[in-house]
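Handout, section B. The chain below has 204 residues.
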Amino acid sequence: MRNACLITVALGFTAVSSAPATATADEVIEQIEAGKAYYAEGDLARALTEFEFALNALRTRFSNAFMATLPGPPALWSAEKPMLETGAALFGAGVMVTRRYLEEKGEGQITAELMVDSPMVQAFSAVFSNPIMIANDPGLERVRLGKMTALLNWDEDRRTGDLSLPLGGRVLAKLIGRDLDDKTILVQMMKAWDLDAVKDVAGF
């Protein structure tokens, strides 16, 4: 079944591969074409290998596109390079990219997380849509961000918290802060996040 799905996906790129050639060859199209040729010859093992290389290359491009949507640092903060969290696979299928931010004149730290097509996104969405569960937790607060609503979990004494925003049932944008003077920076940073770009990459 898995082999059949890979072959079906690859053959679906026929229209793309027949487009005019660009100056630089596309490795994904080359791998798909090689896989199709092996499949036509009946060499299923080599066809499967080429299709898997193509799928892995697509996943890499997909992840890189999401990493590019992570927000820049707020004023007086610095940002590290975005990272692909390969360990996210332990929690099921999907992609998770992160970026860490450091306060330049303080001890504050914020981590931006973007999780896509993971069972954890669905689990959070169930909590987010349950007003009774939110009302029973005094640490939770709904925050309006224009037409969207995020969920803030803030501990005043520990100066830690996180702000989570589900998008389209498939994506979860999250900011996790520690050693913060107040929760305002999380809200401001989420408002500055280009979530439309996230939606474009996710395809909705």
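Note. Strands lie at 77-79, 83-84, 95-103, 109-116, 140-145, 148-155, 160-167, 171-178. Compare this with the example in section A.
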